[in-house]
């Protein structure tokens, strides 16, 4: 299975069940990573309590919020285009207010208000609780902005509403920010320092989801394996914590164990793992619990030791192989996926060959592959020249994508004539007679509906496949104990 994204996720508007008495209409859409989609649910929940129901129609909105992504230049351009569309709507409905949320808000700050006349409101990822106050200012005709990054905001006390989802799988955010400082990456600047959420509030959210019929959660963070709860505060301040705090701290392996034990029938996924932080404990915890899915998203970015160092990825190619070997040994059925960047500054043909040979070693199930995009303010932008010509970046990306295609096919074919467990999520896009769901390894499977329903976990005999999808027939309910 292969997922090739040259662009962050496209905008998607979010709709919640209306609350009686709310008079204003909010249109909210999200771009970029899963964390943004999860954050938009938090924002919509906050505004639901403050007079706003959601709408899917831009034309009838009193307030338009766009949750933005800065990860690559193209992602920012997509949002700029979207603002043009809002502008056209505002000409017809001049009372409509427009707010920008997320990473672009944080990166551009008040520049946004200067550059884009349409924007009335700019709110960074840690300031969503201030939205009611900021909106009061906007109501009075002033532009409003809050881009203060926080040491402890995790929105642990806000229970996000998810009524427009498939009702089967949901995101649960467990950490915010990132301390890794990969030299190409804008995230540490837009989302701030890393902090973890109280495990108690995570477990409560999972319980609430289970009670409402959800069957799968994905624990979310920029770097989930570095999760560490010691009573609140920044990860980097852990050294200053008291002995008691240190002794009772909860790490990611502990958190996984807690969730898997408390809800043994809830499927558990997590994303994203940074190779330097993925411990044997985590892999062993995955092996211990059948309800933790057999999939690790393990971005590597490059196969060249020299480039890994320039990227400030804190592991070598050899250490990565060792980690892969450990995963294969402890979790023989585990699928592994990648993120790759082609054409990082100074990357030579030899470095590129190292990336291809690393891919040959791992044979990833799927991946997300990009050409390098220089981001303002990052260390790479300040210290290195973006010196790989665009055409060469594109050709190298193409090599990587082609090779991934072969590996995806190889991995998908291995499921032929086997029986896999599939959680039914939705109707297949190709046929209303078929269900679509995912296996534990995060591979999509489609099969005739028969007597099964959305949310059922079923055993499926795989008889055919494309490079990305398994095709088969359900033979009964799966027991997930
Ligand atoms: N740890 C994060 C990574 C966020 S960025 C997570 O939760 O997924 C997602 C991916 O975007 C990275 O792994 C990297 O492959 C890619 N990326 C980040 N910055 C980039 C840049 N400047 N140019 C091209 N790709 C980039
Ligand atoms: Fe970015 Fe590296 Fe963190 S890719 S989100 S700085 S792990």
TrEMBL record:
EC nos: 2.8.4.3
Requisite cofactors: [4Fe-4S] cluster
Compartments, as annotated in UniProt: Cytoplasm
Catalytic activity: N(6)-dimethylallyladenosine(37) in tRNA + (sulfur carrier)-SH + AH2 + 2 S-adenosyl-L-methionine = 2-methylsulfanyl-N(6)-dimethylallyladenosine(37) in tRNA + (sulfur carrier)-H + 5'-deoxyadenosine + L-methionine + A + S-adenosyl-L-homocysteine + 2 H(+)
Cofactor note: Binds 2 [4Fe-4S] clusters. One cluster is coordinated with 3 cysteines and an exchangeable S-adenosyl-L-methionine.
Functional description taken from the UniProt entry: Catalyzes the methylthiolation of N6-(dimethylallyl)adenosine (i(6)A), leading to the formation of 2-methylthio-N6-(dimethylallyl)adenosine (ms(2)i(6)A) at position 37 in tRNAs that read codons beginning with uridine.
CC terms in the record's Gene Ontology section: cytosol
Protein name (database record): tRNA-2-methylthio-N(6)-dimethylallyladenosine synthase
Alphabetized GO MF terms: 4 iron, 4 sulfur cluster binding; metal ion binding; tRNA-2-methylthio-N(6)-dimethylallyladenosine(37) synthase activity
Native species: Gelidibacter sediminis
Ranges of residues in domain Radical SAM core: 164-411
Chain residues that bind [4Fe-4S] cluster 1: 33, 69, 103
Keywords: 4Fe-4S, Cytoplasm, Iron, Iron-sulfur, Metal-binding, S-adenosyl-L-methionine, Transferase, tRNA processing
Complex and partners: Monomer.
Binding site for [4Fe-4S] cluster 2: 178, 182, 185
Residue ranges of every copy of the MTTase N-terminal domain listed in the record: 24-140
Family of this protein: Belongs to the methylthiotransferase family. MiaB subfamily.
Highest classification ranks of the organism: Bacteria, Pseudomonadati, Bacteroidota, Flavobacteriia, Flavobacteriales
HAMAP family: tRNA_metthiotr_MiaB
Entry-linked SMART domains: Elp3
Pfam families, per the entry: Radical_SAM, TRAM, UPF0004
Residues covered by the TRAM domain: 413-476
């Amino acid at each position: 299975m292969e997922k090739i994204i040259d662009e962050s996720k496209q905008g998607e508007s979010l709709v919640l069940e209306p609350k009686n008495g709310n008079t204003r209409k909010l249109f909210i859409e999200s771009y970029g990573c899963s964390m943004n989609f999860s954050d938009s649910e938090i924002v919509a929940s906050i505004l639901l309590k403050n007079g706003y129901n959601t709408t899917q129609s831009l034309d009838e909105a009193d307030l338009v919020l766009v949750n933005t992504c800065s990860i690559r230049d193209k992602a920012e351009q997509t949002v700029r285009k979207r603002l043009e569309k809002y502008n056209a709507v505002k000409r017809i409905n001049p009372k409509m207010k427009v707010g920008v949320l997320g990473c672009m808000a944080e990166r551009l700050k008040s520049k946004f208000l200067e550059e884009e006349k349409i924007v009335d409101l700019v709110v960074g990822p840690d300031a969503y609780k201030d939205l009611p106050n900021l909106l009061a200012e906007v109501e009075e005709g002033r532009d409003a902005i809050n881009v203060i990054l926080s040491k402890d905001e995790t929105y642990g006390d806000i229970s996000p509403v998810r009524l427009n989802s498939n009702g089967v799988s949901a995101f649960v955010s467990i950490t915010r920010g990132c301390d890794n400082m990969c030299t190409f990456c804008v995230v540490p600047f837009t989302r701030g320092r890393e902090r973890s959420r109280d495990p108690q509030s995570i477990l409560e959210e999972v319980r609430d989801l289970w009670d409402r019929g959800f069957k799968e959660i994905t624990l979310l963070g920029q770097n989930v394996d570095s999760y560490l709860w010691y009573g609140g505060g920044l990860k980097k301040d852990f050294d200053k914590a008291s002995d008691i705090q240190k002794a009772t701290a909860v790490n990611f392996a502990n958190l996984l164990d807690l969730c898997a034990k408390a809800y043994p029938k809830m499927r558990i996924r997590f994303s994203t793992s940074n190779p330097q932080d993925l411990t044997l404990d985590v892999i062993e915890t995955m092996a211990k619990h059948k309800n933790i899915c057999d999939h690790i998203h393990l971005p590597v970015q490059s196969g060249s030791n020299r480039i890994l160092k320039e990227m400030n990825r804190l592991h070598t190619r050899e250490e990565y192989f060792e980690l892969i070997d450990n995963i294969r040994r402890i979790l023989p059925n585990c699928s592994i996926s990648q993120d790759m960047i082609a054409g990082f500054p100074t990357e030579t043909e030899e470095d590129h060959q190292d990336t291809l040979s690393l891919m040959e070693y791992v044979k990833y199930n799927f991946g997300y592959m990009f050409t390098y995009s220089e981001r303002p303010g990052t260390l790479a932008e300040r210290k290195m020249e973006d010196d790989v010509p665009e055409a060469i970046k594109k050709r190298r990306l193409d090599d990587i994508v082609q090779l991934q295609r072969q590996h995806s096919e190889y991995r998908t074919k291995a499921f032929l004539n086997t029986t896999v467990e599939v959680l039914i999520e939705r109707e297949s896009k190709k046929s209303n007679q078929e269900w679509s769901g995912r296996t534990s390894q995060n591979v999509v499977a489609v099969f005739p509906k028969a007597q099964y329903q959305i949310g059922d976990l079923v055993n499926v005999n795989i008889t055919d496949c494309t490079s990305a999808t398994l095709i088969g027939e359900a033979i009964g309910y799966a027991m997930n104990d």
